[in-house]
Amino acid sequence: MNALPGSTDSMLWRVLFTPVGPRLIVGRRLSLRRWLPRRWSAGELIAASTLPAEVTPLIVEVVRRTRLWRREKVDVARELIAHFEDAIKGEGDPVQALSDFGEARQAAKLIRRAKKRNRPLIWHAWRRTLHAAAAALCLSVAFYGVLIARYFSGSPVIARNYTAEVNATILAVPEEQRAWPLYREALLALEVSPLPASEVNQWPLLPADVPQWVEARRVIAANQASLELIRRGAGRPQMGFPLIPQVDPEVDLHLQSLVHFPAREIEMRESTTGPIYNTGGMRWQYLRGAGMLIAADARLALLDEDGGRLFTDLLTIIGLADQHNGETLFIDQIYSLHLLNTTARLIAEALARSPAALDDEQLVGLAHRLSAYAGGGPIQIRFDVQRMYFADFLQRLYTDDGEGDGRLTSEGIEMLRSMGPDVPLMGVGDEPVRFEWLKGPLAAQLIGGRREVSEEFERQLSLMERQAAEPRWLWKEIPGTTYENQVASPAYYRRYLPLFVMLPAIGRSAMVAESATQRRDAALTAIALELHRRRHGRYPARLDDLVPNFLPALPIDRFDGQPLRYLLTDDGPLLYSVGADRIDDGGAAPVNEEDAQRVAPYWFRIPADPMNADWILWDGRRQSATDAP
Amino acid sequence: MRIETELMRGAGPVAVLKLLERRAMYGYELIEALAQRTEGVLDMGQSTLYPLLYNLEAKGLIVGEWREAESGRNRKYYRLTGKGRRRLAHDTKQWSALSTAMQALGITANPSPEVR
User: Fold this and answer.
1) How many domains does chain B have?
2) Position A70 pLDDT exceeds 80
């Protein structure tokens, strides 16, 4: 038998009795272990001892129960063997020695605990790291469990039915004061569809001699009954179109029966509890058709020099614009401005092309109606309607703690996905998500809570409101630019995802309002110039000559805050704005479509770098009256 | 008289350190010495002595080394380290103060017998 190694503190001892020691140092392939002293196991040591047979089981049990490293077990075994050899020698009785030693299980437990304290620092560090990792894992699992429970246990509470509130106001107006019933009749009376809208949209602006007028004339001639109903409807004070049901099955079926109307599945939504933000699409499509049809007829009347019809149609368009402006939905405001723009452009063209088409009384009547639009003065977008949208939206996404806060629900996540944005971890659309139960709670944490999102919405909207309340020449940036820059950041986008859905580039609508203000003021100025010409036999030398008999005040160029530029040439007058670059180029017209877009950005943000052109608002020069403005 | 576990937990380590003050001793020898010198009062269970020794060793107060005794048997002898001596001096003061306090309260009537 090999001799037992001596001191347990020696390096040799540690190498031999550390579980991986010899393998690390010697390696398997070299097989040098045979050159080293034999590695004793605790069992072999005990078996090799001279202790009586009744004692060894206790030592074996104690050593086994310690569950220590091999080296440590050997050390304990050696010490216990020595102990019992001394004890038996001292007491002479192995049974007594066993009795004096005590219970094996307890001894093993204490020895294990004490021996482990003797282990190297690195082992303690590793053990603590493992314990910390295990604790962190347990905590994480527990925390995630809570998240999962919260995610699936919470449900949105529809505390306020905004749609019903709006509808109650709309339906409280007597039917004879509401225009929608007549517009509805007009849609049902359509003989030929004026759609697709993309084509009809162009009709009011088409040059006089293009072939599209053949189709336009055919559609307009076939729909005279509808046009008459639209004219009557525009004379009523309010639109009165309930928000829900959003699709009118009878109107939809009729439109589908017409050639151009795109076929679609009719949704029979009779619910009165639907989300308010989901009610704009169809009504806009219905009403846009009516607006474009009357605008096309006005243009046709202008080309035909039918002043009476032109006047009636222009008043109809302004009436439609007024009605849309009084509606709840944001999109109605935008469409209202579009109609106002169309009116202003048609008036400008009429005054350039056929100055005699409209008599004095008609011009004054149109001027009064235009001036009174939205209460007069610079046109302001009412961003506040978005607050109602957003409040309704949030109550369908989040739980409600009764104090303005709440957590995103699984229904909310689904709704967000169905509305288009890329929801973190959950993707887009309504395809099932793998491991939704695992991803959903985390996604809900990545997106801000109800109060946080609501406060950010209010912050951004208030900023847009403040910016849009300023006249354009004082803007340091287009309203909403701050938000658009922030939402471009992935972290912001993720955190405030509901804002992205409900607060698209609406800040830019202030540009539309500014454009409409400018075109309206230009149309009013053009009317004033024409009335001056009729009264005095000539155009005024300066715009100041129009004030106060023809205009209450000088029209302002919305780009620089100065009076609109006016040139009186031998061929006639020219009214223009300096445009986005704020440089007066002497009334030079843009040479191409790109410059025409850049000179007065309407919606898209276009850099206002200098260009050699101005924004021509009314060209009364004789040679210009051949094409549309 | 058997000392309760809690008291023994405080007294055991200092008693072992004191025994090792003059010379190195092995496990069974310590058990015997404790029983004899304290007349059985500090007669700790044999199975608890070894964990106590391993704990003191882990703290660096004692160090154990295998040696061959005159009888030819291998035994693990424990001796005090420098740190152990300082600890013993410190603990001795503590116990002395405690003993004085106990006397003052009349809990112990006579000075504690000096452990030799």
Assistant:
1) 1
2) yes
